[in-house]
Design goal:
13 strands; alpha/beta; about 500 residues; single chain; about 35% helix; four-stranded antiparallel sheet
């Protein structure tokens, strides 16, 4: 008798750096993610295809680069009837569900204020989800209702939560952000948004009827700011023992980066202790998510599903966390593009760590291969499943792509094992050129140095010019017109 198709769980953090989990030597306490890594494979050089929420998530859904799907910023969502790995899974017989933050349609100002996210469930159905329990990210819960705000309202905590979020938003918009001073969420422990997501996912697994194989996408809202993890998780960290971030840069390497830093001058002036405390609060949110990953695994074991379920862990993009005097993402530093990537097969295998350069659009290709479902047409993503067949000492385990692209705001970044080059798409005007072999901390911009001119030309010729026909110029022009008329890049 043919073996039943496996289940797939895709666990997705928001704004989690690729270097912070314990499995790769990071400082965050992540025993449950580490256990997945011990029973599967970690790709230590996985890069986001865009260091911003909506573009990155669109790349993951479609298997397309930003230049193909045209989502250059957070201002709009892609066509939900376009390519979708979730729809391909559904059409191959999977029960598909998503729990958490999706950002597949515009939630923010100018988007859909005043509605409940349940009114947009049809959009997620078009993407291919049979079921959805969608949540807003924390900032959006201040003005838009979702399943989480319903839960808060039912327990009498909604006004308290919204006052807390609005105070944080006011500080953020003032330019006087002090992430090291962020208080824990004011709701009782276990009532925060990530716990709501984790608990809902566990209940979904417990109620699964086993009639069909399932694809479950669990999308946490942390460790994205506000860094408001419960006190019990903060207390796990000794602030003064943490790294403060060694990367300092007196002069930003481009005008855009100077403008980005100018939005948060307090971050650029942070003391060593403030940076350490900031990291502790960020790691507390990571550890909270890790706790729920453990609960998801336990639920699978109790239901007898662990040995028939793939588990994939990833994040949309990284977080600067004070490096280079910056908070957040939306820049082409490695810390903003580098993301965690762990794959645990249904039956555990000996731990493998791969140094192969891979990218997020490889993940939809991988999950479709797990299900033996129809691949995404013309996607540059490649399945990562062959790496699970390589023994730890096999050199092929570390052979990845020669380069990947990360794109945002009408710019493209070429990332190789050694270099990062960022430029405008239309005129190839260089903004950044980092050589990590010479400057691991990305403190020196080589873009104007004659010795690197031929290297830059070669990288562009080999890795950008062949993709020219994939660029959706209509949507790129639309984005440029938006910037010209509004003065906003996002």
């Amino acid at each position: 008798m043919a073996e039943s198709p496996p289940n797939i769980i895709f666990i997705f953090a928001d704004q989690m750096r690729g270097d912070c989990m314990g499995a790769v030597g990071g400082e965050a306490l992540t025993p449950n993610i580490d256990r997945l890594a011990e029973e599967g494979i970690v790709f230590e050089q996985c890069m986001s295809n865009s260091p911003l929420c909506v573009p990155a998530r669109t790349c993951l859904m479609t298997g397309q680069l930003v230049r193909e799907n045209g989502i250059w910023s957070n201002r709009s969502g892609a066509d939900p009837l376009g390519p979708s790995h979730v729809r391909n899974l559904r059409d191959s017989g999977y029960r598909t569900a998503v729990i958490g933050k999706t950002h597949l349609w515009r939630h923010g100002p100018g988007g859909k204020p005043g509605i409940h996210v349940k009114q947009m469930a049809h959009v997620l159905e078009q993407w291919g989800f049979n079921e959805s329990v969608e949540l807003n990210d924390p900032i959006e819960t201040a003005w838009m209702d979702c399943h989480y705000t319903d839960y808060l309202a039912a327990n009498g905590w909604l006004d308290l939560h919204r006052a807390f979020i609005r105070a944080w938003v006011a500080e953020m918009r003032s330019g006087n952000m002090t992430p090291w001073g962020q208080e824990p969420a004011p709701v009782p422990e276990g009532a925060d948004e990530d716990s709501f997501i984790g608990r809902t996912a566990v209940e979904w697994i417990e109620n699964y009827d086993k009639g069909k194989p399932f694809y479950l996408q669990i999308q946490f809202t942390g460790p994205h700011d506000p860094y408001d993890g419960p006190t019990a998780y903060r207390d796990l960290y000794n602030v003064e023992e943490l790294d403060a971030g060694a990367r300092e840069l007196e002069e930003p390497p481009s005008r855009g980066m100077a403008q980005f830093r100018a939005r948060s001058p307090s971050v650029a002036r942070a003391t060593r202790f403030q940076k350490q405390r900031w990291r502790a609060w960020y790691y507390a949110n990571v550890t909270l998510i890790d706790k729920w990953i453990g609960e998801v695994r336990t639920a699978l074991e109790k239901q007898g599903l662990l040995d028939s379920t793939w588990i994939v862990f990833n994040s949309d993009h990284g977080e600067m966390l004070g490096d280079h005097g910056l908070q957040g993402k939306a820049v082409f530093y490695r810390d903003a593009m580098h993301v965690p990537c762990v794959i645990r097969p249904p039956k555990a295998l000996a731990a493998r760590k791969s140094q192969a350069l891979v990218e997020q659009i490889d993940l939809p290709a991988t999950m479709l291969a797990m299900a033996d479902a129809q691949p995404l047409a013309d996607s540059l993503g490649k399945s990562l499943l062959p790496y699970l067949d390589y023994e730890p000492e096999d050199p092929r385990l570390h052979e990845g792509k020669p380069a990947v692209l990360s794109e945002l705001f009408g710019q493209t970044a070429i990332v190789t094992d050694q270099y990062t080059l960022a430029m405008r798409i239309e005129d190839e005007d260089l903004a950044l050129f980092f050589d990590r072999h010479e400057d691991a901390g990305e403190l020196r911009n080589f873009k104007n140095e004659a010795d690197y001119a031929s290297v830059a030309s070669r990288l562009i010729e080999e890795h950008v010019h062949p993709l020219a026909e994939r660029t959706n110029h209509t949507l790129l022009d639309d984005y440029r017109n938006y910037v010209r008329t509004t003065g906003s890049i996002n």
